[in-house]
């Protein structure tokens, strides 16, 4: 049995102007599953969690001028969320596109062995999704990319 108190080491928190709409959209577009919603006395979402595979993300509202959605910051981001997929990357991309995601990079094989795509959600958060499709060595990745790589999984 899984320990209900065991959580992944990292859990990104994303801020949305409309967290309720974000929850619905993230489920429809990316296949996340809502696992917790906390509302205040007025029924507004103050915290929510969504699961995907063995990871999770937290969703919350804007609550100070320093904590805002990219939609309130002219589209600027200081982070993006990367998600490893178990299924078909191309099908996942089409699901996201059908739900209204802006596809910033179409699915394609990367020099490091993953097939990946990048997308933007309705409030401007940046997402990347990938699945390993081939195992390559660091030397192969360096030759393919023209980059110098330190460390390698």
Topology:
Blueprint: E1 13-16, H1 19-30, E2 33-39, E3 45-52, E4 55-61, E5 80-84, H2 89-98, E6 102-109, E7 114-120, E8 126-132, H3 138-145
Termini separation: 30 Å
**CATH class descriptor of the largest domain:** Alpha Beta
Structural class estimated from helices and strands: alpha/beta
Task: Give the strand order of the largest sheet, numbering strands 1, 2, ... along the chain.
Answer: 1-4-3-2
Number of strands: 8
How would you state the average pLDDT, rounded?
94
Described by strand count, sense and barrel closure, the largest sheet is: 4 strands, mixed
Strand residue percentage: 25-35%
pLDDT < 50 stretches: none
List the helices and strands in order. Answer: EHEEEEHEEEH
Q: Helix tally?
A: 3
* Radius of gyration, CA atoms, in whole angstroms: 17 Å
Number of domains: 2
CATH architecture of the largest domain: 2-Layer Sandwich
């Amino acid at each position: 049995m899984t320990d209900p108190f065991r959580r992944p080491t990292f859990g990104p928190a994303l801020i949305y102007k409309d967290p309720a709409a974000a929850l619905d959209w993230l489920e429809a577009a990316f296949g996340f599953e809502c696992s917790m919603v906390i509302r205040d006395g007025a029924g507004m979402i103050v915290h929510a969690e969504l699961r995907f595979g063995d990871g999770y993300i937290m969703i919350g509202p804007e609550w100070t001028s320093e904590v805002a959605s990219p939609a309130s910051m002219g589209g600027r981001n200081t982070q993006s969320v990367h998600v490893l997929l178990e299924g078909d990357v191309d099908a996942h991309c089409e699901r996201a596109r059908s739900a209204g995601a802006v596809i910033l990079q179409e699915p394609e094989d990367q020099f490091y062995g993953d097939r990946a795509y990048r997308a933007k959600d309705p409030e401007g958060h940046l997402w990347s999704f990938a699945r390993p499709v081939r195992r390559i060595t660091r030397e192969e990745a360096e030759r393919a990319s023209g980059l110098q790589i330190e460390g390698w999984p």
